[in-house]
Design a protein that fits this description.
Distance between the termini: 14 Å
CATH class: Alpha Beta
Order of helices and strands: EHEHEEHHEHEHEHEHHHH
Helix content: 40-55%
Number of strands: 8
CATH architecture: 3-Layer(aba) Sandwich
Largest sheet: 8 strands, mixed
Shape: globular
CATH topology: Rossmann fold
Number of helices: 11
Number of domains: 1
């Protein structure tokens, strides 16, 4: 079972968009049993994929006697399950600190069940949750908007990870008509690129990954190519 974290210290860089579309690629394109674990108290992935009433049990998963697999929910996408988030995760850092278990998330992932891939939709920031994510992940996918602020966040995460886990930077929301974006992409030609596109913006309307409603769009193709890169990185 491989754990893939979609993480950045900066918000608004497309983490949830990446997480949902990569989870779809894992489940549908690669036919792998996949679970997307939403760790963000904003619960955007949960809202996109979950059709059942919300709750306030997400934080309780991390308690010592929790049966973690009982919290997993199926989605409408074959092969893709969801560990939902809710507002209770706003105090997750405090709970993790109080528990004092440095690999609590890693141990919970081991008890999720028979999955091939676990994708983590992570909250932004350098927090106790992010420390748990770094210890649990086999690969960190790091979204970077082509801007100085996002590049700074990338450098911060890479320094913080310190080589403990491989990091795959991905340029997101790329508009090559903008000189800043074009120059940033040209400076890092080996980074995968996800274009800014109306099809991506429509995800909230469809409440679905691009592969479900716009499989031939340039953005869907880019997500597919990124997933191929991720599979190759995991196989090394």
């Amino acid at each position: 079972m491989a754990t893939i974290a979609i993480y950045s210290s900066k918000g608004g860089v497309g983490k949830t968009t990446l997480a949902i579309n990569l989870a779809w690629c894992s489940a549908v394109r690669s036919n792998r049993r996949t679970v997307l674990w939403d760790l963000d108290p904003q619960a955007a992935s949960t809202w996109m994929l979950d059709r059942t009433p919300g709750g306030d049990q997400a934080r309780a998963v991390f308690t010592r006697d929790s049966k973690v697999a009982a919290h997993v929910r199926p989605t409408d996408i074959p092969g893709l399950d969801l560990m939902p988030a809710d507002a209770s995760l706003r105090t997750l850092d405090i709970l993790l600190h109080d528990i004092g278990k440095r690999r609590r998330l890693d141990r919970l992932i081991e008890r999720l069940g028979d999955y091939d891939h676990v994708l983590l939709d992570c909250p932004p920031g350098l927090t106790e949750t992010s420390e748990q994510v770094i210890r649990a992940a086999d690969l960190i996918v790091l979204p970077v908007i082509p801007s100085p602020f996002a590049q700074r966040a990338h450098d911060e995460v890479v320094r913080h990870v310190g080589g403990k886990v491989p990091v795959l930077p991905v340029h997101t929301m790329v508009d090559r008509r903008r000189r800043l974006h074009a120059d940033a992409v040209a400076a890092q030609p080996d980074w995968p690129t996800i274009p800014m596109a109306s099809a991506v913006e429509a995800m909230a309307e469809h409440r679905a990954p691009l592969g479900s409603y716009a499989p031939r769009s340039a953005a869907a193709v880019a997500f597919g190519n990124l997933w191929t890169t991720i599979e190759r990185r995991l196989s090394v």
